[in-house]
């Protein structure tokens, strides 16, 4: 059983990798939600000798509280997004606010694609086992946006791997993937960061370095 608090993202990734080891033979594609999911996913990809890439998605925050997710958007063509309609109604969020935030987050996604991936094409999930990784889940809106995209990708199997999530949200997501691997589901939950000793924000340069290091390992 995993003890809380978790040390840091990479330690959490190593713990998840132990649980995911049976999938090493499947030649999985590991997709990380940047920025925080990348160190977790890096350890999984190294342990499983798997290809690592990023799933570019951004949260759409509430007015005055950007950490409260009204929805999320994934950088596909055309863009796909999910919205928490109940929360939007409860907060009486204007439609114009959501639309403006959607445009802003799409612009940020495109910037990150240029920074993280340069001209390297994204690997296709079609016919593959995909392991989707983040450093934790709070509402699940961000993960659901990526799952929406993967549902259109013809992936053979989708595994969601996260260190920590609220029990109720984890159980809901379990029904949306082929397999859920979650180390701990503490209650009460609070925020993802409070369950780590080290939860420093990552810079783009750190994300790029980890992606490059993973490519060197898997490319031999």
From TrEMBL:
<keyword id="KW-0808">Transferase</keyword>
<keyword id="KW-0328">Glycosyltransferase</keyword>
<dbReference type="Pfam" id="PF00156">
    <property type="entry name" value="Pribosyltran"/>
</dbReference>
<feature type="domain" description="Phosphoribosyltransferase">
    <location>
        <begin position="13"/>
        <end position="184"/>
    </location>
</feature>
<dbReference type="InterPro" id="IPR029057">
    <property type="entry name" value="PRTase-like"/>
</dbReference>
<protein>
    <submittedName>
        <fullName>Phosphoribosyltransferase</fullName>
    </submittedName>
</protein>
<dbReference type="InterPro" id="IPR000836">
    <property type="entry name" value="PRTase_dom"/>
</dbReference>
<dbReference type="GO" id="GO:0016757">
    <property type="term" value="F:glycosyltransferase activity"/>
</dbReference>
């Amino acid at each position: 059983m995993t003890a809380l608090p978790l040390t840091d993202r990479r330690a959490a990734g190593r713990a998840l990798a132990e649980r995911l080891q049976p999938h090493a033979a499947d030649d999985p594609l590991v997709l990380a939600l940047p920025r925080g999911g990348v160190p977790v996913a890096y350890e999984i990809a190294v342990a499983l000798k798997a290809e690592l890439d990023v799933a570019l998605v951004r949260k759409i925050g509430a007015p005055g509280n950007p950490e409260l997710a009204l929805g999320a958007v994934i950088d596909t063509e055309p863009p796909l997004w999910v919205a928490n309609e109940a929360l939007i109604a409860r907060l009486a969020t204007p439609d114009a606010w959501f639309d403006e935030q959607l445009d802003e987050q799409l612009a940020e996604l495109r910037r990150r694609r240029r920074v993280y991936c340069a001209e390297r094409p994204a690997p296709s999930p079609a016919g593959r086992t995909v392991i989707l990784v983040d450093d934790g889940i709070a509402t699940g809106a961000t993960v659901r946006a990526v799952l929406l995209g993967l549902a259109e990708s013809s992936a053979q199997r989708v595994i969601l791997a996260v260190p920590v999530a609220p029990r109720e949200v984890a159980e809901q997501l379990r029904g949306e993937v082929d397999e859920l691997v979650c180390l701990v589901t503490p209650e009460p939950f609070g925020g993802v960061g409070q369950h780590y000793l080290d939860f420093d924000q990552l810079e783009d340069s750190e994300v790029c370095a980890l992606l490059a290091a993973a490519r060197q390992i898997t490319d031999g």
